[in-house]
Amino acid sequence: MMLSVVIAIYNEEKNVKELTLRLIKTLNSLKIPFEIIYIVEGEDQSINILKQLQKKEKRLRLFYSKKPSGLGRAFKTGFCNIRRDSTHILTLDADLNHQPEEIPYFFKLMKKQNADMVIGSRFVSGGSIDIFPWHKRIVSRFTNVLVEIVTGIKAKDKTSNYRLYTRQALNCVVNKMKFPGFETVVEMLLITAKNKFRIAETPIQFKWRVHGESKLNMFKTAIGYFKLFLRISSYK
User: Fold this and answer.
1) What's 162's domain CATH number?
2) Which pairs with CB-CB distance under 8 Å and at least 24 residues apart come from 32-35?
């Protein structure tokens, strides 16, 4: 087993050190080989903080650009640079919405259900959302309902970016990804479901960021979803 963690960062200098240290501690406890790939964009101190951490932790790999390319493009950069011997790929947010200490539950459920993708879900039994702004809570719920109506996907948390993939499923996703922005999270789920990979959900405790600001532009993302919905039939 070999795990590649792929994280896209855009101006998260106040979160990236804590995230990295917590990730390393959790992954070391799993006693499996791993690498952490950061796709760093923006002009704050995130890249410099990571370079300092990299001096002591050689399993950190960094790809940097000042100009933001969009979540989908950033992920594709990371996915195309994972180690050849990686068997599993994990994605999560860089703002500490997602708790690294929950990673062992993903592996446990993947093994139990023989799943190809495990989603960290806010909406299954045992999942929770801590201090989530009411308007974002409404938007999140509405988006999940709308995506189910349009795509037929039954997963309860379709917009969660906290996911564990098998290499086989991830390879399929990478080859068919088209969208550059936040809508790619739903796109990757759609590709996985359309290609008959087994999907499971594990509860997570979602916590609202303490530092920094959300990068989600609701208008651009809504347009992205609309374009994605128009192309659903093209995913096979």
Assistant:
1) 3.90.550.10
2) 32/1, 32/2, 32/3, 33/1, 33/2, 33/3, 34/2, 34/3, 34/4, 34/5, 34/59, 35/3, 35/4, 35/5, 35/59, 35/60, 35/61, 35/82, 35/83, 35/86
- d(Cα 94, Cα 11) in Å, to the nearest integer? 10
50-59, 82-91, 121-130: which range is least confident on average? 121-130
Domains held by the chain: number: 1
Which residue range forms the structural domain that includes residue 75? Answer: 3-234
- The rounded distance, in Å, linking the Cα atoms of 68 and 50 is 18
Question: pLDDT tens, 59-84?
Answer: 999 999 999 999 999 999 999 999 99
The vertex-75 CA angle with 73 and 76, nearest 5°, equals 65
- pLDDT at residue 231, as a whole number: 81
Q: Decide if 101 contacts 27 (C-beta within 8 A).
A: no
Which residues are within 8 A (CB) of 219 and not within 5 positions of it... i.e. 6 or more apart? none
Provide the pLDDT for residue 135: 59
